[in-house]
Amino acid sequence: MTLLIACSSRAEQFAAEVRELDPDLEIRIAPNIGNAQDIRYALVWQPPPGLLHTLPALQLIVSVGAGVDSLLDDQTLPVVPLVRFVDADLTARMAEYVALHVLFHHRRMSEFRELQLRRVWKYLPEPAARDIRVGIMGLGVLGSAAARALQPFGYQLRGWSRMAKTIEGMTCFAGNHQLDAFLAETDILAAILPLTPQTRGLLNRSLFAKISQRGRSPLLPGPVLINAGRGGLQVDADIIAALSAGELYAASLDVFETEPLAPNSPLWSHPRVVVTPHNAAESSPSAIARYAVRQIRSLRQGGRLENVVHRARGY
Ligand code: NDP
Ligand code: OXD
Fold first, then answer.
1. Of all residues in the chain, what percent carry a pLDDT higher than 90?
2. What pLDDT is attached to residue 219?
3. Spatial separation of the C-alpha atoms in residues 292 and 14, rounded to whole Å
4. With bands split at pLDDT 50, 70 and 90, how would you rate the model's confidence at 84?
5. What is the mean pLDDT of residues 77-105?
6. Helix axes 109-117, 88-106, angle to 10 degrees
7. Which residue in 68, 56, 49 sits closest to 6, CA to CA?
8. Is the confidence at residue 91, as pLDDT, over 90?
9. Band of residue 39 on the pLDDT scale cut at 50, 70, 90
10. Dist. CA 157–CA 237, nearest whole Å
11. Which residues line ligand 1 (CB under 6 A)?
12. Could you give the CA distance from residue 116 to residue 171 in angstroms, rounded to a whole number?
């Protein structure tokens, strides 16, 4: 029974953690696969496309990421259960990220920071949280945790998902036919969607134009975009154009069309943009190892796997 760890980073760390948890499990680290027939399980993060296809006895793929878009892009991905990572610590970190950036822009911190650097003591009007509508795109594990984190501040919460939902304290919208209505009721938009063919490029200029512009004075100076889902959801150039045109007031971006973000991207230096290096919700190697070992044991014992990806849906 052999586990292959095929991760573009932290592979040795994962291996050390798994060894401690299950010393009987043989571990190989890609590209040192050995006899491919031995490998029953794979723990992966951005494995080379085609690699998993070369493992004829593979029974389970555990994704180090909560998002599995890059795995599903591999047309040769074996049709065995694919389990994505879901974890309380990761979820809490995403909720923190979203709450932090909603508060940051609501409280106009990029402007206060600029004033501070110029040693200017100046009051800027700030609306009450109860007057701001935060629209969350994606109401899964992470989006719903972000909503719970925002609730105590008193924001008006709006949510958008694929299937209709009822969530206490939130007005929920679902499907493409309700997207415009959702945007029209949103001042700060936080995207925590998976990247699928349906969501690719969704955060574009025409969508920004549909976000409520009610936020303009005396409320927020304009709509805010937060993207902590995937870079492929957004069109970087459209964000820059919308900021320049005043269609967006500010943005916090954790993910980009191309990562790392190119040194010459205007997003780095835009005064109303916060750039973070895809670290909204970092997952800990020990939690990942525990999770992977649990899934492997479950499979061996004929138990239920957790968080199995629905391939046709793409998440
Ligand atoms: P879930 O699968 O739990 O939730 C996904 C949500 O997106 C669901 O509510 C789903 O709707 C909704 N959704 C999917 N497709 C559409 C669509 N076409 N239209 C409307 N809604 C849609 O995922 P998680 O919450 O665990 O994670 C979300 C994403 O966050 C991951 O896929 C990953 O890309 C990203 N991520 C980013 C991290 C970072 O550090 N920046 C860290 C971890 C994850 P429904 O409920 O109806 O199915
Ligand atoms: C993930 C990520 O999908 O870190 O888990 O982006």
1. 96
2. 78
3. 10
4. very high
5. 98
6. 60
7. 49
8. yes
9. very high
10. 28
11. 66-67, 94, 138-143, 160-163, 192-196, 198-199, 228-230, 254-255, 278, 280-281, 315
12. 37
Q: Name the catalytic one among 107, 278, 290, 294.
A: 278
pTM: 0.97
Q: Output the residue whose Cα is nearest ligand 2's atom 1.
A: 65
CB 33 within 8 A of CB 70: no
Distances, alpha carbon 204 to alpha carbons 22, 67, 149, 192, 208, in Å:
46, 21, 27, 15, 6
Percent of residues in the chain assigned helix, strand, coil, to nearest 5: 35, 20, 50
Q: Got the DSSP string for 17-71? A: HHHHH-TTSEEEETT----GGGEEEEEEESPPTTTGGG-TT--EEEESSS--HHH
Q: What is the CA radius of gyration of the chain?
A: 21
Helix extents (H) in 107-140: 109-117
The structure tokens listed for 158 are 């709006």
DSSP-assigned letter for residue 173: E
Where residue 1 falls among pLDDT bands split at 50, 70, 90?
A: confident
Find the mean pLDDT for residues 143-154: 98
